[in-house]
Each structure stands twice: as C-alpha cells, then as structure tokens.
C-alpha cells in the first residue's frame, strides 16, 4: 500500500507512538489529523507538527459520532484510520486488586473504542479507492504479562477482532486491516513498566508502522515482539514463562 498523499486519522496522537507516527507520516507527504481527549496536549502537538486536530474522547459514543461527522465534512478523502489511543494498569491479579474496574476502563479504551470508531468510519473508508485500518495492539496480544493482566486481555480481544475484520472486509471492500504489535516503547504511559530504562524510542515504532503498511505486512511486529511471537508458536508454555520471568 502506497502511504503517500493519504489523509490519515491517528487517535491518541498527542504523545507517544501516536505523535511519533503522525510526525513520520507528515514527513512522508501525508495529511494527518490527530485526535485525543486532552485539548492542551493535542493543540501543542498539532502546532508542533503543523497539522489539524480534533478533540475527542473515543470512549464516548456521542463524541465519536461528532468526530465522524467532522471527518465526513472536512476530510472526505480520509483513507487511513490508526487506532492508537490506549491505557493500561500495572498490577497483579488477586484479592483486592479491583480487577473488574481496571478491566472496564482498559476495555473501554483499548477494545470497545476502536471497534466503535471502525464501525462508524466504514462508510467513509469504503468510498476511497484504497483504504486501511491500523490497530495498535501489543506483544501481550498473543501471550499475557502478569503485571498487565487485564490490559493483556483487552489487547488479545483487539487482536482477535483485527483478524476477523480483515477476513470480513477482504471479501467485498478495498479496506486493508493491519495490526501493530510493539514490544515495550518508551512513552509517558510506560513509565511504571520500565519504559524509560528498557523501552524503544517511539520513532522506531513509527518507522516500522510506515514500512509495514508500505509492504502490506498485515501483522507488524516492533522490537522484540517478532521473536517473542515466534517463540510462542514454537513452545507456548516456555515462551510465556520466559516473558514473565521474575514477575510472579
């Protein structure tokens, strides 16, 4: 897929992987719109990149409808959606963990939000001669991390949805569905996970996303995720134990 002169929406584009990806795509000659729920952060990011932004909490159904209306009106040539917005809680399952409430928040942002936005944007994407949906999941989508238990659940659900959506849309549309599975990336959201010490720069993920789209690699692995996936396919039990070594 040729990722040049495309109009692209990046959710959660005010920082981290979303910001780095927006920056990379702009340099490659694309028109990028970023969205997010923090107006100040979003405005600052958009001004730095010289692009447009739309404030939207993707967990709010009415806000998503408003976002889609704005896109249909002002960006009717939108052809790529990058579902990047996400949250995660670092904790362990057990008595007093409050796992249900943490899971509810994680699923609202990491799973239900992209599913809703995709469904609402399908009519617009279907109008384009070439289009793509890009879901940012994680290396925990294929095996869990015990200190990110319900985050792992949500990303696994997004992985499954991406596969089903890819197969479904391939039958009668020109919409391609990509899934990006990064290993640890150094962002504000990963400070509690050791991102500053052990994470890759967001720019690495941005470059891998761009290259993966250009090469039509529907599953895009970033950092160690590719080897982790290969290890999992070879020996799931051993791979999961290695992935969680020292954490349980």
From TrEMBL:
Organism superkingdom: Bacteria
InterPro entries xrefs: NAD(P)-bd_dom_sf, SDR_fam
- Keyword tags: Oxidoreductase
The UniProt entry, under Gene3D superfamilies, shows: NAD(P)-binding Rossmann-like Domain
For this protein, the record's PANTHER family field holds: DEHYDROGENASE/REDUCTASE SDR FAMILY MEMBER 7B, DEHYDROGENASE_REDUCTASE SDR FAMILY MEMBER 7B
Family, as annotated: Belongs to the short-chain dehydrogenases/reductases (SDR) family.
Query: What is the protein name stated in its UniProt record?
Result: SDR family NAD(P)-dependent oxidoreductase
Species annotation: Mucilaginibacter rigui
